[in-house]
DNA sequence: CGTGCCAGGTGCCAT
DNA sequence: ATGGCACTTGGCACG
């Protein structure tokens, strides 16, 4: 930890923030503040105690005591302005594109902390939509016995078809994969099916493959003669274990503190 | 600030976390850790230094040194488990619905902080889609001269029409408002127009009103004989100033520390 | 409670 | 840069 100051006064705050905000440090300021934002929209946040975090890439977060989400933020700050005034410490964070500004006015500072985090590890995640695509291609029978995948990402005037296949009777099958299917998914699938039917002048099946389904969406599908096949997310994830094991290795964590 | 401990050992960590995680405090733990998540998806995050924040409503955030987003998180935690072991401090955060778990293994603790934030202010924001709706209703000529709004949220079999209106020549006009229009927006508007044309057996205009537009979406609109009208977000926001001023008042901030 | 839908969405990868 | 799209989307409002 580089620095921690409890109950700093505004001039301490100005000094520390001016020194560290623009550099490769994680800076935290907590205290009683109000926040204004103007840019793509405009917001006002009255006085309250919050935790403000400036990350090492200049991302800015204003967190209240609740919620996953910050109350205000700036994904990337291009210009900082810090000014201690008689009755407040003003912190302005401006972003150029889009042009947006977050202004934080502290009336009281509870603490101020400067640290540096070293983290070169990437998050490895499995369970995205693309992983379902891969599972289907590896093992088409999770959708249907004797299904043969013809093409992935087949282009049509209406967009890209996730998986294009033929069933055991030779029918063309359009497969749309969605992690979180909704009303729109059905319309999208419908459009693809229409496109392919036009193209081949044949009857074409449309299957929505998803790990979950709601009654409403299912009704909507069936009204249109489309089908649903559920897929277990655990199976999709499981196929990753083997891949992952083969690539497993110790992390090469080696703290390499860099200043600036 | 309730507590701050620099370089706590695992048993300090266990003690403090056990005491405060389940209560109405903001808890921060920073240190070298690895994180596993399993639930709707599955992820692994190798060793690295991170800032872990538990908010007063039990939201959990695992922030790396960069990015607006946390690397792992839990919007709401139902069950905590903390255990100091010989070589690590294990923190498990489980959520019941959906069933998900985040496991954080600290190999080294840099600091541990317990605070309590008091914030009863609501964020007032202007610039949402609904605000565009209101602007149109207040002053339809921002879309077109002599436009008359007939109905808002008119229901059709294809969904709700944002604004239903008539132009100076008496034609029906379907208006779809979008803050971030895309490909799907066009299809949605098309469906509404089709519905209304069926209903009245008349030619019906469709207008997409949005603060921004891309060439691709514009082409797609025009191919279908639909129109686009841009709206200045600043105008939408401006109309708020007057409303806001009339309601402006001092915040009644009054720190009321509650334990549990 | 499920369902739909917006978001200052953010982030990622394609062209 | 721009567009198109998925997200452990989160969050809210509504039936």
Offer a quick outline of the entry.
Chain A is 24% helix and 40% strand.
Report on the architecture of this protein.
2 copies of one chain form a homodimer. Chain A is an alpha+beta fold. Chain A folds into 2 domains: 113 residues, Protein Yojf, Chain: A (Distorted Sandwich); 118 residues, Trna Endonuclease, Chain: A, domain 1. Helix content of chain A is 24%, strand content 40%. Chain A is built from 5 helices and 14 strands. In chain A, strands 1, 2, 3, 4, 5, 6, 7 and 8 form an 8-stranded antiparallel β-sheet that branches. A 5-stranded mixed β-sheet of chain A has the order 10-11-12-13-14, sandwiched between helices. In chain A, strand 12, helix 3 and strand 13 form a beta-alpha-beta unit. Chains A and B meet through strand 2, strand 3, strand 8, strand 9 and helix 3 of A and strand 2, strand 3, strand 8, strand 9 and helix 3 of B. Strand 9 of chain A pairs antiparallel with strand 3 of chain B. The structure holds a DNA duplex (15 and 15 nucleotides).
Helix-strand blueprint:
2 copies of one chain form a homodimer.
Chain A: E1 3-6, H1 10-20, E2 26-38, E3 42-54, E4 60-63, E5 72-74, E6 79-84, E7 89-95, E8 100-115, E9 123-126, H2 129-138, E10 148-156, E11 159-166, E12 172-177, H3 183-200, E13 204-210, H4 215-223, E14 227-230, H5 233-247
Parallel strand pairs in A: 12-13, 13-14
Antiparallel strand pairs in A: 1-8, 2-3, 2-8, 3-4, 4-5, 6-7, 7-8, 10-11, 11-12
The structure holds a DNA duplex (15 and 15 nucleotides).
